Write the C-alpha cells for this entry.
Amino acid sequence: MNIRNRTVAIVAAVVTASLSVGLNLAPASASTTPFTAQTPAGAALGVLVQFKHGVSARGPRGTLAHQDAVAALGIAIKGQRALGGGWHELRFTGVVSEDAAQRALKAMSAQPGVAKVSIDRVIRPAGYVPAVSSAAPKLSNTAILSTIFGIHALGAIKAASAPLKVVTKDAFSPAKPSVAAVTTSWSKPKSFFGASLLGYKVQASFNGGANSIPVGGVFSSKTVKVTLNSGLQPGIAVSVRIAAVTKLGKLTKVGAYSPWSTAIPTGLPQEPQFVALPINTDKPTLTWDALSLHEAGGLPITYTAKASADGHADVLCSSTTTSCTFTGLDAGVTYSVHLMAANKWGATAFVDPWPVADPYFKYQWQLAGGHGINVVGAWVRTQGSQDVTVAVIDSGITPHPDLDGQQFHNQDGSVYGYDFVSDPASSADGDGWDSNPTDESSDNVWHGTHVSGIVAAASNDIGVVGVAPGVKLEEIRALGIAGGTSADLIPALLWAGGANIPDGNGGYIPNNQHVAKVVNLSLGQPTPFGCDVSTQSAMQWLHDHGVSVVTAAGNDGAAALDSYPGNCFPTINVGSTGFTGTLAEYSNWGAGVDISAPGGDYLHPGTVDTAPDGQRGGIYSTINLGTNGVGQAGYGSLEGTSMAAPVVTGVIALLYSLKPSLTPDNVVSILRASASAWPAGSACATAWTAQQAAPNDYSIQSCGVGIVNADAALAYAAANY
C-alpha cells in the first residue's frame, strides 16, 4: 500500500498512520518457510501458469499438468487451483528462495503446452501501524397474492403447455405514488394433458431473463392476474413469466413457462441535485446533471429552473436537456437559482443548489482550486451516477456512516463484495475466499476504509465528502493481516471486471453482479522484476473490457517503473503532490508516472489549516479507530500515492458518469489534455519538458503530464465526446 508514516495525536475521532514496503529476498534454497506477517513483500510462494489454447491443465489425481518438473527440483508442493483468465496457481508449501523460484519458473516454462509462467509473490506492505445498484433488485418471498400451495416431488406426468396471452403493464397509482408496481395477466394454457390445474408459478427477472427470481409460491388456479409491487424501482424494467402447476393423483408438475413479458414501472421523479454559482446577465446559463431513467421515474423529464433575487420578479427557464439560458434577467442583479423536475405523474418542489455541508470539507484541500483538483466546478455537471461502479481492491472495509450508503449490500444488509485473501496467515477465519470483504485487523491501518472515502464518501452533512459521491463502491479484499499474493490479486482484478472465477470444485464463485467501470489499486511494492505476465494479462483483459485501472506509483522516491503493479500496462499510474503543488518527497517519479494528484505531503503542508490538530498536509478521509479489531468510525489524515490514486479514480468515475460511452483510452486522452500544468520553472515542469523530448530516458525525474483537474476534465469531455 502506498502510504506514508507520520505520528500525530488522536483527537475527536482522528487518526493517522502509514506503511512502507521493502523487498528482501531469502538466500538460495529449495527449502520452504512458513508464510507469516513477517514474510517480506515480493517473496515467492509458487508459480502461476497459463497453458496454450486447447491444452489441458489437469495432471494425474488432481494435480497441475507438469508440476512434477517443479517437484523434481526438491520444492514441496501444497496444491494447485484455477484463478480465472486461464491462469492456474501451483502453490509451494511455504516461501522459497528467489533462486528456487526462478528455477521453478524456468522448469515449468520449458514444458510442452505451457504458454506463460510467472512467480506468485507476497504482496504485503510492511510496517503496518495498529490502527441505485445496476443489479437486479430482490423481490419479497412473501406471496403478493393469496394462498401459497406446496409442490410435491415431480412425477412422470406430462407438463402443461405454457399460459397464453401474458401481458405485463405499468401499474402506477396516484393513490400510492411512492410504490412502483406492474401487473401481469394471462390466459389458461391450451393443454393440461389429463391433469388438473393446481395453480400458477410466477417468476420475475431484472435482466431480461438471464436470471430469474421466484415470486411467492403457487398462486390459486383462479388467478389470472397478479400485481408485483415489492422490490421494483421506477425506470428499471421487470420481466415476468408464468407456468401452470398441474396435479395428477399425488403427483404435481410445473408446466412450460410462457415467454417473458416486460414492462417498466414508473413513478414520480426524484429531486434533481446540482451545484451552481449565482446567475447574472454575464453568466446567464445554468447546467445540471441529468436524472437517470430510474431517478426520472422511468419517464421523460422536463426541468424548470428559477432565478430569484429580492425585489425582482422571478425568471423561469424550462428545458428537456441539462442546461438552460435565462432571458429577461435585470442587468447588474445577482440571482440565486433553483431547479425542479417533472414527468407526466407530477413534479418535485424547487430545490436549491447542492450544498457541501459536510463539516470536514474545509480540511479537504485536495478538492479545492489552487493545487487541488477543482472538483466543485466538476460537480456542476455531475456528482457521479449510481450506474458507475468503482471497485476498491484493498484491505477490505469497516462500517462507516460516510460509506455505508455508498456501497452495494446483500439482502441481509452486509456489504456486497468478495474476499480473495486465500492464505490462513492473512485471514482471521482461515477459510480462504468468501463473500465477506470486511477488514479483519487494525494491523493494516484500515487502509481500504480510508481509500474508499477519498473516492466516494457521501455528501450527507457528516464528516467528509468524496470526489464522486454519487457513484457506487464495490469492496474487494486482496490484502489481509499478513498481506496477499499475486495469486489473490489476479482473480480479484478479473472478478471486478465480470470474469468467471473458478471455485476449485468444478464450478465458479458467484459472478460479480456489479461489474466495475473503474478499479482502484492503492497498493505497491518495489520490484526488480517488472510486471509479471499474469498480472499484465489481467490488466489487459480489463482494458479490453472497458474497465479503467488506476494504480499508485509508489512511495520510494525512485523510478515508478520499478514499482508493482503500477509498472503494469495499461494502467493509469499516479504520482503524489502536496498542498503546495510540488511532487511529494516520497513519491516515485519518471516515465512510469502518467499523471499526479494530491496525495499529501507532511513536509510541505503550506499555511492553510488543512487538517485538525496538526495533521496539516495529509489527505483527510474516513478511517476506523479500532486498535484491536474493528472499533469506532472516525476520520484522519494519511499521505501517500495510495491517497493520490483514489483522487484520480474519483475523477474518472465522474467522467464515466457524464459520458458513459467513454473507453479507457478516451479517459487517458481526456486526463492528459485537461491536467493542470506544472508551475512554470518548477522542477516538474522542467522534467516534463525533458521527458517529452526524450521519452525513453528513464533517468529523468518527471512527475507526469500535470495535476489532475476534475473541472477541466469534465469540461473537455463535454465538449469533445
Notes: The longest strand covers residues 238-248. The first helix runs from residue 68 to 71. DSSP finds ten helices and 30 strands in the chain.
